Amino acid sequence: MTGPLIARDVDDLVRRLVRPGDHVHLAGTPSRPNALTYALCRVFGADGHLTVSTTAVHSSAHALALSGVADKVIAGFAGDTYPSPRPNPLYADLAQGKPFTFEAWSLLSYVQRLIAGAQGVPYAVTGSLAGTDLADGKPDELHLIPDPAAPEREITLVTALRPDVTLVHGVVADEDGNVALVPPLGEGAWAAYAAKRGVIASVERIVTREEMREIADRVVIPGQRVLGLAEAPLGAHPQSLRTAHLAGVEGYLDDYAFLEETVESCHGPHRGADWYENWVTGPGSHEAYLSRLGQARRTDLTAPLRPAKDTTSDYEAEIEAWAEIYRCEREAVDRALRAAGAHVQRPEPVAADGGSAPQGPPAAHGEHRTGAAGETASAAGEAGASRQERLIVLGARAVADQVRRHGYDTLLAGIGTSHMSAWLAAELLRAGGHEVRVVAELGMYGFSPDPGDVYLFSLRHARRSEMLAGIPEILGGMVAANPRALGVLAAAEIDESGTINTSRTTDGRWLTGSGGANDIASSTDCVVIAPSSRRRYVERVSYRTSPGHRVREVVSDFGRFTRPTPQEPRFRLATWLPAEEAADSAEDMRRQAAEAVATRTSWTADVSDVTPEKPVSEEELALLRSLDPDGRYR
User: Fold this and answer.
1) pLDDT at residue 361 greater than cutoff 90
2) Burial of 156 by CB count in 10 Å (0-12 exposed, 13-18 middle, 19+ buried)?
3) Helix (H, G, I), strand (E, B) or coil at 89
């Protein structure tokens, strides 16, 4: 048996192992194979005629559209995720096949297809997609058949997904091709096994067989599946990489400044062409790309992850350093609450000395940190809640009420104001001595968000997690198979049945897609967080991305819509939060609420039993702003 090809760089690797017309899979881990993706675009350009599958098209994957390398893309999301989720103009005409034909899936059903491919079976059974427009237009990939055990019911089969090659970025590999990665793993190694020809891998460093034997428990992809390797330091940039200091390799953080530059360029007059020239074709190689980034920027991304001590092993020192950061930031949150006059109760109380809050880790490039927690609380007390903050706080109240009432133990939130509401709810519940686990679909379980970093998938949060796994464990095991999970979702459109649209506008323009939202809404109870607008609260959604039969509550910035049971056909307005002065009487409150429903939604919700919401408290606002000191969601 011969070992894998070891190429001089990623462009050489792609040139020698990828063929025009291939189905190329870009591994959907939190550390995407971006150096290989750029190489794919440079080597083939518009002559690639590739089919590309990947969990989501965002940030550096916009190069696929700008290069013309892909004729077809199979994914669950196309748009932007940072600084907040939004449509990207590159995909406005995606429904019409521009810039490529797009086959839309939900995240879990997509990974289930890869698992089927990896296991050599023709189909996977999924609990997602049924009853939505995502199930339409897939006659060869999706089949509804009678359940053999209960023929009156249908089950959904999806065909196995088997790319020709899978591109992945790992921490290290040896000369035999064994590739080590550190969780969270996103889709995991399934695509490596599903690939017909095998894996093309970039890694931070190629190590010896002896070094790899020392970390054999970190090998995720065996060498037998690997066609070729190339070293590519920062090969996941601008995404982050966790390394646990395997073989002495340093990890790095998300480059938020770079991500924002990419978004701004795509929304600018050149529609991303200037970004593509500056960062993909202009450099011409990964080595030149790193030179263009500059050493100072690279150092900024790695410095916060360096262990503070060297008296123990690298890995133990890293854990010790982050444990101290976690303790300091938890004390900062407590002081923010106390400064606002709140009582704080924790399962393991932490003594506070009343002094200045310790600072968190050094700021990454393009990232800002809050000052002392007392300053955050003071600012909260001086400034009233914005409309978006009211929405997040009302959402957090709804989530917390649902947890207390129904005993949910797990919160899984979609990205955006929905995840901010879930985070705030978990903190408020925890402050009252009620623990609930927050999870993120790419593989983080039981995490407490890093104050100041509002990106849902930031690997800073991984350091504050109880478990790190992948998409099947979270969307499958902790949500679909867990009756005590509560989903917290956003909506571009939502109708009075609770059906959600995040895919297309009424005139056919592309929004973003499902991501994991369809999987969550298909399998577990949900709260939906959506700012009021007649174009958002609609009579009938223009595209059914996610089903509404498990939606318990819909939260707007002026009140909360509920229904007695999810089986009820329509929602009623249950609570009312005035933006300014409170109503003089119950009758006046109902009048104001009815006017808001009529003018700020297209719903006909009953307001006869509406009750007043308490004003947003200093405690709630202080805690929210301790999570979001830069006001990304203000």
Assistant:
1) no
2) buried
3) helix
Q: Which range, of 250-259, 495-504, 566-575, averages the lowest pLDDT?
A: 566-575
Looking from the CA of 32 toward its CB, the CA atoms found within 13 Å total 22
21 conformational bin, left if phi > 0, alpha if psi -120 to 50, beta if neither: left
How many of the other CB atoms lie within 10 Å of CB of 482? Answer: 18
Strand partners, 440: 444
Give, in order, the Cα–Cα distances in Å from 314 to each of 174, 252, 584.
20, 15, 63
Phi, psi values for residue 559, rounded to 5°:
170, 175
At 268-304, the pLDDT tens digits run: 999 999 999 999 999 999 999 999 999 999 999 986 6
Place of tokens 């529609």: 271
Strand, coil or helix: what is 188? coil
- Cβ-proximal residues to 420 (8 Å cutoff; 6+ apart), any chain: 392, 395, 454, 624, 627, 628, 633
User: Is residue 99 helix, strand or coil?
Assistant: coil
CA 272/CA 262 separation, integer angstroms: 7
CB 195 within 8 A of CB 235: no
Phi first, then psi: what are they for 389, rounded to 5°? -65, -40
Largest separation between any pair of C-alpha atoms in the chain: 83
Tokens of 153: 């019911």
Look at residue 92 and give its three-state secondary structure.
coil
Q: What is the mean pLDDT of residues 434-463?
A: 93
Q: How many CB atoms lie within 10 A of CB 99?
A: 20
- The H or E element that residue 560 is part of is strand 560-562
Q: What is the pLDDT of residue 322?
A: 40
Query: What's the distance, CA 267 to chain centroid?
Result: 21
Amino acid (1-letter code) at residue 348 = E
Please name every residue paired with 102 in a beta bridge, in sequence order, or none if there are none.
Answer: 73
Alpha-carbon distances of 514 from 75, 143, 186, 289, 577, rounded to whole Å: 9, 20, 16, 32, 30
Q: How confident is the model at residue 155 (pLDDT cuts 50, 70, 90)?
A: very high
Residue 102 vs residues 21, 289, 401: alpha-carbon distances, Å: 16, 29, 39
Per-residue DSSP letters for 334-394?
A: HHHHHHTT---B-SS-----SSPPPP-SPPPTT------HHHHHHHHHHSPPPHHHHHHHH
Residues 373, 339: contact at Cβ < 8 Å?
yes
Give the separation between CA 379 and CA 19, rounded to whole angstroms. 57
Rounded alpha-carbon distances, angstroms, from residue 80 to 94, 142, 149, 388: 14, 27, 42, 19
Is the Cβ–Cβ distance between 443 and 242 less than 8 Å?
A: no
Residue with the bigger pLDDT between 614 and 322: it is 614
What size, in residues, is the chain?
634
Q: Is 584 left (phi over 0), alpha (psi -120 to 50) or beta?
A: alpha
- Distance CA(201)–CA(229), nearest Å, equals 5
- pLDDT at position 585: 86
Residue pLDDT, tens place only, 201-231: 999 999 999 999 999 999 999 999 999 999 9
Per-residue model confidence as pLDDT tens digits over 494-546: 999 999 999 999 999 999 999 999 999 999 999 999 999 999 999 999 999 99
State the distance between the two ends of the chain, measured CA to CA, in whole angstroms.
59
Q: Sign of dihedral through CA atoms 508, 509, 510, 514?
A: negative
Give the C-alpha separation, 524 to 577, whole Å. 28
